[in-house]
Write a structure and sequence with these properties.
heterodimer; A: 123 residues; mainly alpha; 4 helices; globular; B: 305 residues; Alpha-Beta Plaits; 5-stranded antiparallel sheet; 3-stranded antiparallel sheet; 8 strands
């Protein structure tokens, strides 16, 4: 399969997800859970991108991390509500920190790539 | 040093040959070009040699990377990643939709924020109240205007009649059922169980109303909205009048419907029969029910205007 075809498939899948999702309404009391789950999803996604760029990508690790992280995050929110402590804040902080780290790694890798290409052209 | 270099080149060439077996022709060309430049670089200067080597290694890595990526982009992984992306976008969209549709997000709000929210709601309430009062004045004006209208008067009188029937203020007639309830005469049943109690009457009145009865009376006492049925010693008090067994309950409504509602299997009549209470249900096409005797006075309740 060509890379462009795969990218196209991914784009279509994302668009479909948005279309189906925007027709659905989650009961309001579950939005706190979903919010943390979304952060977990994004964290795993960017983690996957970074590992792919570093050539360390592993499908099983990626998919399992995607779901397990989200479930643990949801559980933390639930536990926090039971204990009356905002434990979900911990999850939020961890996920956002990791998001930023991953994003910076991605940025650095891209910049390195570009600079390398320039050098090669000169050579 | 030179020996080493030649070895390296040889090794590299081997690698490129390996790649040529799988990679398309243009890639092979590219690699050949690269190796050529590398060789040239090595032949040239020692300072350039170093950088060329570095480039060479990174290129090698790149080729390996692309190869691995090719391996990775098989169908299962594409499907898995698609699934993950779908779930992600789906949930994000749903969440955005939900949060966007919720007007006030009270969770996580501070006291001050909640107070301002309350203030806003109060202001809105006041505004709406004013609006309502204004429209109420307009409605009153219309009413005053319309009092001269004959059509309105006739419709009002029919409404009034209806209200009077429902309130039990007039004598009514129509089809319906007559139920006779009498205490048990069976000696095998305990005396207490065989008596007709206030709850029994209430149950039967309730059943009749559920079946759509429009007017009900028990021993001549019209059941109205303020009627109480309660046990007073050996008798039952309805509308502050004492009544005793046998009870004659009259109900105006769909006669067949009322009768079947009472006689339904395991229904209220069957239940009475268990305790030996004498029950008789008769349909009648012409029942008259007296009006409520007492005067209706309201001390506390008044219309909200």
């Amino acid at each position: 399969m060509k890379k462009t075809v795969i990218t196209l498939i991914f784009a279509i899948v994302i668009v479909f997800g948005f279309i189906f999702g925007s027709n659905l309404e989650i009961p309001y009391k579950y939005t706190a859970y979903i919010a943390v789950a979304i952060l977990a999803f994004l964290d795993s996604l960017f983690g996957g991108i970074v590992s792919n760029m570093k050539n360390e990508f592993n499908m099983t690790v990626f998919v399992s991390g995607f779901f397990v992280n989200a479930l643990i995050a949801i559980f933390l929110v639930y536990l926090g509500q039971k204990l009356n402590v905002d434990i979900y804040l911990a999850a939020v902080i961890v996920f956002t920190t990791r998001l930023f780290t991953n994003l910076s790694i991605i940025r650095r890798l891209i910049i390195e790539n570009i600079e390398e290409n320039k050098k090669n052209k000169k050579a | 040093m030179k020996d080493n270099n030649t070895k390296l080149v040889a090794k590299e060439k081997k690698a490129t040959i390996d790649i040529t077996k799988k990679e398309p022709i243009d890639k092979v060309k590219k690699i050949a070009k690269e190796s050529a430049t590398v060789v040239m670089g090595k032949v040239a200067e020692s300072s350039k040699e170093q950088s060329a080597k570095k480039v060479n290694i990174s290129k090698k890595q790149k080729i390996e990377r692309t190869r691995e990526l090719m391996k990775k982009y098989n169908i299962t992984s594409v499907v898995m990643i698609s699934l993950v992306l779908f779930i992600c976008s789906f949930i994000i969209a749903a969440q955005l939709n939900t949060v966007g549709n919720t007007d006030i997000i009270t969770q996580g709000m501070r006291e001050a924020e909640l107070l301002t929210e309350l203030q806003k709601a109060n202001n809105k309430y006041e505004e709406l109240k004013e609006e309502y009062e204004k429209s109420q004045i307009i409605v009153d004006e219309y009413r005053a205007d319309a009092s001269s209208n004959d059509l309105l008067i006739s419709s009002m009188t029919t409404l009034l009649e209806r209200a009077e029937i429902l309130a039990g203020l007039v004598k009514v007639k129509g089809q319906g059922v007559v139920i006779t309830l009498a205490d048990s005469t069976d000696t095998n049943i305990p005396v207490e169980a065989g008596l007709v109690h206030d709850t029994d009457l209430m149950a039967i009145v309730n059943e009749l109303r559920a079946a759509g009865a429009e007017a009900i009376s028990v021993n001549g006492q019209r059941i109205i909205s303020t009627t109480a049925i309660r046990c007073v010693g050996p008798t039952i008090q309805i509308n502050e009048v004492k009544v005793a067994s046998p009870f004659h309950i009259k109900a105006i409504g769909d006669a067949k419907y009322l009768e079947s509602a009472l006689n339904i299997k395991n229904g209220i009549v069957d239940n009475f029969k268990v305790y030996g209470i004498n029950v008789e249900v008769k349909t009648d096409n012409n029942i008259t029910i007296d009006k409520y005797d007492n005067t209706l006075t309201l001390k506390y309740a008044s219309e909200v205007k």
